[in-house]
Amino acid sequence: MSKKVGIARAHTNIALIKYWGKRDKDLFLPMNSSLSLTLDAFYTDTKVVFDDSLTADEFYLNHQKQSEKENQKISQFLNLFREYTGERTYARVDSLNFVPTAAGLASSASAFAALALATATALGLEISREELSTFARRGSGSSTRSLFGGFVEWDMGTSSADSMAHPIDDASWDIGMIILAVDTGKKKIASRVGMEHTVQTSPFYPMWVETAAQDLKEIKAAIAQRDFERVGQLTEHNGMKMHATTLSANPPFTYWTADTVRAQDAVRQVREDLGLPAYMTMDAGPNVKVLCRASDMERLVNGLTEYLPTEQVLTSLPGCGAYTLSDADWQESQGTFSRGGDHD
């Protein structure tokens, strides 16, 4: 019996210029390019073992064997690599998610980025990180960006071959993010479902695509100039525009809850009271993320915890790109998870 093993860690990312809408659902080609910040606080560790003794692929998430539906999704993803390399062996996939799943905290981004790198490592696939992102994209669009650290752009491209991510800036200039995790339960409307419904029914959607392209151009210029306040302003405006498209869908829907609105009000009040730049964004979920200067984070957290429970206020610095782990690292990760590390 022979085994091929790969282990990898990838961090979540939060989009500052959002990806919202696909022009090709099968190839996961987006309607617009996007830009994100990779976070160090949340991540996924994944081990892939191609084993010729297996008679089918197996998928375990957080030590729990997954449903046939989830297993099939992983098998389809692994097939991309098998078709590319000629590999015929089935694999066992074990993932540990150190981030709440399906709560708008980009767990799918870290999950598929880690899976892509672990699979490529197991199969000895030597391709660029940019090209690897075209594989990751087929599992989760936003996972393209989690292969890199700091500020990352996912270029929409013209085809499947060039719709890929690349790093923009390492975000080492006093960048931080506060996560207001007001609801970490599974959201009622999956991102893919909400996205498709919005594209099909919102009269505002064409303007979203047009303005997102301009937002991307402007935020890249602001990052190059290290103009934090301009980066923040563009981040907040772009996020609010994305959520406006869901409210204008037919029938309308929203990922916001009453707690989301309370968290937004808290951010506005604290930045007014303290006079500190802090800018909100939200992905397809109820939780609020606050882009801020790392040096202001402690004061902002102290202010926010006057309005919100302390356990809901999380912090993160910029994270690095995905990387491979040793078997010893994997054993340590399992121990951390078993001891109740930051996971569901």
Automatic annotation (TrEMBL):
Entry keyword set = ATP-binding, Lipid biosynthesis, Lipid metabolism, Lyase, Nucleotide-binding
User: Which species is this record about?
Assistant: Streptococcus cuniculi
GO CC annotation terms, alphabetical: cytosol
Name the EC number(s): 4.1.1.33
Q: Domain of life of the organism in this record?
A: Bacteria
Q: What NCBIfam families does the entry give? A: mevDPdecarb (TIGR01240)
One GO biological process term is:
isopentenyl diphosphate biosynthetic process, mevalonate pathway
Q: Which residues cross the membrane?
A: none
Descriptive protein name: diphosphomevalonate decarboxylase
Family label:
Belongs to the diphosphomevalonate decarboxylase family.
Domain called Diphosphomevalonate decarboxylase-like N-terminal: residue spans: 10-165
Q: What class of enzyme is it?
A: lyase
Quote the Pfam families the UniProt record gives: MDD_C (PF18376), MVD-like_N (PF22700)
